[in-house]
């Protein structure tokens, strides 16, 4: 059965799980500690209903959304997802091509297999770059200059990784630093020969944008050791000010979860924030982003662009976030499952699937375009209902 047979998120997830060894699938699937944040992200959406408005003439559905003075074809984009090359060789650029074809933004992870220069060749107008702040701030300065040279319209500074999180699945599989896969994980991987061939014959450097800063001729192992000397470190407001000084275009902070932090970001000249708990992968007791989104919109919605990621599992989730005040939504695991299951066709299929789901929800709601989204469509349900 080809990837085109997938009709929803769950289908792509099952196809990805079948193709990938456990060690790779758990890397996508897993969260931090007991994975309460993963559950909370999804549950929070399930407690909000969308109220349809019928007898509205909807001749055509238009998902066009204006974001930072650029017109995108849909109200969503692709979030940064690190080490995608572990799942499928060339996955980062496959996702970039799918984003360009759909006219949506793609945020290249700071831990991407491809380089930002390669992204600029493929999708300069649709590519954004995610910056992880390194211990050596001179490296950050150079990465900012490189991203500027690529002409990317937006730089995304991720602020919610002050230290290594405990992903228990990765620890059990031996995928946490220093990356020594367990014997059981190695044995299980042998049951996935197509993935093994793809991994061994593809580019194996999982953080290509860092290669030039590592010691000369550093192989994958040496590069990882170097990377662990640089990441993670806490991001400070002084760092935000420095990035703002160097970066000439739109600057976004990813990982904002408190209205006071959003207010300070606005006062620091930041253009937007992505309300996010890192997909449940960083702090297990963090609230779901959709829970804190209204307060952040109330605090700074008239001063900056508010976006959201984490917990998106269907088109209705995207529309719900917009109705609560988000100007844009980013998906992560959904498109990762697509590219892992089907390569380039899988990436295109995942994006097309999301587009169709969003359009279906908009038609049912009587919302012909993204400008129609608003709180009048929402009703909250109590957990007992």
Q: Based on helices, strands and strand pairing, what is the structural class? A: alpha/beta
Which percent range describes the beta-strand content?
Answer: 5-15%
Count of beta strands: 12
| Total helical elements | 15
Distance between the ends: 38 Å
Strand line-up in the sheet with most strands: 4-11-10-9-8-7-6-5
Radius of gyration: 20 Å
Structure overview:
The chain is of the alpha/beta class and 385 residues long. It has 15 helices and twelve strands. The strands form three sheets. Strands 4-11-10-9-8-7-6-5 form an eight-stranded parallel sheet. A two-stranded antiparallel ribbon has the order 1-12. Helix 12 (259-267) crosses helix 13 (289-300).
Describe the secondary-structure layout.
Elements: H1 9-19, H2 22-29, H3 36-46, E1 48-50, E2 65-67, E3 70-72, E4 76-78, H4 91-102, E5 106-108, H5 116-122, E6 127-132, H6 137-150, E7 154-158, H7 168-173, H8 183-189, H9 193-201, H10 220-230, H11 237-246, E8 250-256, H12 259-267, E9 272-275, H13 289-300, E10 305-309, H14 315-323, E11 328-331, H15 333-365, E12 378-380
Parallel strand pairs: 4-11, 5-6, 6-7, 7-8, 8-9, 9-10, 10-11
Antiparallel strand pairs: 1-12, 2-3
């Amino acid at each position: 059965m080809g990837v085109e047979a997938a009709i929803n998120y769950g289908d792509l997830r099952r196809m990805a799980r079948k193709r990938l060894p456990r060690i790779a699938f758990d890397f996508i699937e897993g969260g931090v500690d007991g994975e309460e944040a993963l559950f909370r992200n999804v549950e929070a959406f399930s407690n909000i209903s969308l109220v349809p408005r019928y007898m509205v003439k909807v001749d055509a559905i238009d998902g066009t959304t204006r974001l930072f003075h650029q017109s995108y074809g849909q109200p969503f984009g692709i979030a940064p997802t690190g080490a995608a090359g572990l799942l499928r060789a060339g996955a980062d650029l496959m996702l970039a091509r799918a984003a360009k074809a759909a006219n949506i933004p793609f945020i290249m992870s700071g831990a991407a297999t491809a380089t930002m220069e390669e992204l600029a060749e493929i999708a300069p107008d649709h590519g954004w770059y995610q910056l992880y702040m390194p211990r050596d701030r001179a490296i950050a300065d150079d990465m900012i200059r490189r991203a500027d040279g690529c002409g990317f319209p937006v730089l995304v500074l991720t602020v919610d990784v002050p230290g290594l999180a405990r992903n228990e699945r990765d620890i059990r599989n031996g995928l946490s630093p220093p990356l020594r896969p367990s014997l059981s994980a190695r044995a299980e991987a042998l049951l996935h020969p197509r993935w093994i061939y793809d991994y061994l014959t593809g580019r194996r450097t999982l953080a290509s944008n860092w290669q030039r800063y590592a010691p000369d001729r550093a192989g994958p192992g040496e590069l990882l050791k170097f990377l662990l000397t640089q990441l993670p470190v806490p991001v400070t407001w002084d760092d935000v000010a420095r990035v703002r000084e160097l970066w000439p275009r739109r600057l976004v902070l990813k990982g904002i979860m408190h209205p006071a932090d959003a207010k300070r970001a606005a006062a620091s000249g930041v253009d937007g924030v992505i309300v996010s708990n890192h997909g449940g992968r960083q702090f297990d007791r963090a609230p779901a982003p959709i829970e804190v989104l209204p307060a952040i919109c109330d605090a700074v919605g008239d001063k900056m662009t508010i976006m959201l990621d984490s917990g998106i599992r269907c088109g209705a989730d995207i529309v719900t976030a917009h109705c609560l005040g988000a100007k844009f939504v980013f998906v992560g695991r959904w498109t990762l499952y697509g590219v892992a299951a089907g390569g380039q066709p899988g990436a295109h299929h995942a994006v097309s699937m999301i587009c169709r789901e969003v359009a279906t929800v908009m038609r049912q709601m009587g919302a012909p375009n993204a400008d129609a989204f608003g709180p009048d469509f929402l009703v909250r349900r109590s957990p007992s209902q």
